[in-house]
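Weekly modeling sync, notes
Attendees: AB, CL, MP (scribe)

Item 1: holo prediction request
CL wants a bound-state model with iron/sulfur cluster before deciding which constructs to order. AB pointed out that an apo prediction alone won't tell us much about the pocket. Agreed to run with the ligand included and paste results into these notes for async review.

Input as submitted:
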Amino acid sequence: MTRTIHFVSLGCAKNRVDTEVMLGVSDGAGWELVDDPARAETIVINTCGFIGPARQESIDTILEMARFKDEGACDKLVVAGCLAQRYVNELAVEMPEVDHFLGSSDMLRLREVLDERAGRILVGDPANWIVSASDPRRLTQRGHSAWVKIAEGCNRRCSFCAIPGIRGLQRSRPLADVVREVEALVAQGVVEICLVSQDTIAWGRDLPERPALDSLVASLAEVPGLRWLRLHYLYPESLSPGLVELLAGHPVVLPYVDMPLQHASDAMLRRMRRGHGGRRIHDLVERLRTRIPSLVFRTTFLVGHPGETEADFDELLALVRAAAFDHVGTFVYSHEEGTAAFAMTDLVPARIARGRASRLMTAQRRISRQRQRTLVGQEIEVLVEGPSDEHEALLDGRWWGQAPDVDGKVVLANGTGLPGELRRAVVTHATDYDLVADLLAPDGTRDAPPSWD
Ligand code: SF4
């Protein structure tokens, strides 16, 4: 009889890839994926343990899923990922309801759990594994889009970040292996690939030939059938001229940059151990915008790091106003053991840190609204994702300036289209983060309103 399994994936896109690998493992073992956790005999929670709020969400989710041991069909609760990797000893004692713990490099060992030949703790050295083209995987992203992890771990030592301790040092995937995976995904119908890792710009530096990121991007952009290629998590270093040219001119490489800048003040960047000052950030943004006028720039900032003064924060706010980024995410500092900042004593009170985050996002909302409005009346290329969350008579899509999961969306109010189609559309309305557009027919005219009979 087919056995049933349910997955909950928390955290970032890298975690989503790991969840998709575990889904591939359970498919290979003949298990049926069910949406309703009450029906699942095994429930797997892929956790995030990066910062306090993410940890809390992971713990709440584990407790919520544990209920199905009494109220549903669940006889096995599995906790995987970063939280298990980081806190397995504590969790093993405090959560007797969890049957198995899988570390962040132990996804393939889910097969041992499903075959009932696993011990309770399967948490190995994080250096043991990095996803490869030969691993099983089932996609979960809408709209024929997929995340591809090109490296694991990180060699930097930013003061606030626990990732190197959880995920280990950087291990890049060989170029040919990434190309093989992308070819296979495109053969399944994927049209958009988003490259991720902890430190994408450093891809290849640990490989024997030390290939540069532009060689990988150039090879992937030539995979027949791939239409959009997007880069995430670029550390703010000077991008090589080759990479800038690809971003500026290759029809498949989107002029979209996701570069977490974290801060703008020299004093804070020094304390954060970022290896550069505010000048580099201003120069980088300016050079990229000059060379690539259509550039869409996403970044994230960290506020409330120990020692951050009001003057430091004002510098950050000034950068946000001057650079007019397209998409901004803000994190409030979380005091994490195992990081350099944990030893710092000049903590910023949580209330002040939260207030700064909210001021920054208020400033950004205004900028975002203005930038969104400039798109009204323009024709854009949209990836149709499928029926809209807003209303069944509408479609959801994204234009190339919006990455999946993190940026807004385009609600397609008029026109018909199939998931995975790249179509032209005219923007009719803009909110702070989303757009509304009408799909154009292939001849350039507006499609007739949809008929959903
Ligand atoms: S580069 Fe990113 S992942 Fe690496 S230590 Fe810094 S913040 Fe953490």
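Recorded for review: The CA atoms of residues 145 and 192 lie 5 Å apart.
Action items: CL to compare against the apo run; MP to circulate these notes.
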